Each structure stands twice: as C-alpha cells, then as structure tokens.
Amino acid sequence: MSYLFVRENRELLLAPGDRHESDLGVLEVPEDVQPGDTVETHIGEAFEAREPRGPDLFDHLDRTGAPMMPRDIGLILGEFGLGDGDRVLDAGTGTGILSVYLARHGIEVVTYERDADFADVARENMETAGVADRVDVRTGDVTDGLDSLSGFDGLTLDTGDAASVVAQAPDLLVPGGPVAVYSPFIESSRECVETAREVGLVGVETVETIQREMTFDNRGSRPSTRGVGHTGYLTFARTPI
Q1: Are 37 and 80 within one domain?
Q2: Structural domain containing residue 200
Q3: Which of 56, 73, 125, 191, CA to CA, is 20 to 30 A from 63?
Q4: Mean pLDDT of the 181-206 span
C-alpha cells in the first residue's frame, strides 16, 4: 500500500522503499513507514505520511482513460447499500476507481477489463490503494464467462454492451441484488432500462448526475457561471426478492 506524503501544497503518493527527487530534495521512503510519521528529504524538507482517502486515490492513481467521477460513485454506493463481506461483479474496469471505492467499503469485487494493458494498470492501482486482496481484476469480456458467474450481491457496468449483461442479472445476483449501469449516452441507458424491465427487474430508474458549484463573493451568492457539470447517466434496478 502507498501513502500520501504531504508538505504545504505538495502531495506525493509513494510506497515504502520508493525514492522521489524534486526541487525539495531526495525523499527516500522507509520500508517501515507508518501514517503520522515525518520523513525528511536529504536537505531537511519534511513530509508527513498519511493514509490516502478515496479522493486522494482518485487524484493520484494511474489512469488509462476517463474514470468514473466521485459524484457517480457516491450515488452507486448510496443506492447499493452494500458493505463488508458483500460481493460485486463489475465490468469495464478501466483505471479501477470504482473497484477501489467498493473495496475500501469491505466489498469483494470481481472486475473484467477487455484491454490487457488497462487491466495491468488497474492491478497496479489495487496494490497502490491497498485493496488487491479484495479485487480480482480479470482480463477479458465478462460476457464470455457469464455461465460460470452467480451469487453476487451487486452488479456494476461501464461498458457499451451493458444491456446484454443486464439481461442476465437475475441469474448473476442474489434476490434483491442491485444493478448500476453508467453511460455517457442516453441511448444506451434507454436500452438498459428496456432490458431490465423485460427480464423482470424492479425499481428501474435512470438519473443524470449534474453538479453545480456555488459562488460566494462581496456582491452576493449564486450558482457559478461556469457550465453545469454533466458526467453521465446512471441506471439503477434490483432483482425481485
């Protein structure tokens, strides 16, 4: 697991044994470093070691594309209500941000990524986040192995063919198991909604995740004049109890 090394406005995500060179000197991380320790560079610049939180990992983990945003992940965690000991099947690993957040809640994750290079990066990110023991990153298409998968407590999808997996949700999930599908496009969300209804899922709904920042200054308070922050659409459903 890596730690966040903080000094004023400088943050570094480093693992025990790492060596980092910068204008503040050479920082060599001890193998036995613990959160709360102070580590100095060779010229005496001090950094405090901290255990990284979810937002820290989102900012510092290696990326292979556009990861799911924390606002989307928060909605999924809230809708799912899953926790320690539950199992989630995920497809479209990408960077692995969603898997990291799920695993940090004690959830066991099996996640599929078609791109072998992306999958390798995701595995490294699981090690960095300290959740490799709870996330099984598999290289391949989840649709190729659906017949051997069952008994999951939740299903999360971020793939173009998500509807084909939603169609199998009753066989993949325990009774009452939640489904969450992320899509940047409304057309694929509609397809997932129609499929979910066809196979008898309940509580089917799609929401758009929009975030609007507030501005506070001497003249008054109002929404920011910057563009509304659309990220994507989330479709939720559950298997019947």
Answers
A1: no
A2: 57-238
A3: 191
A4: 96
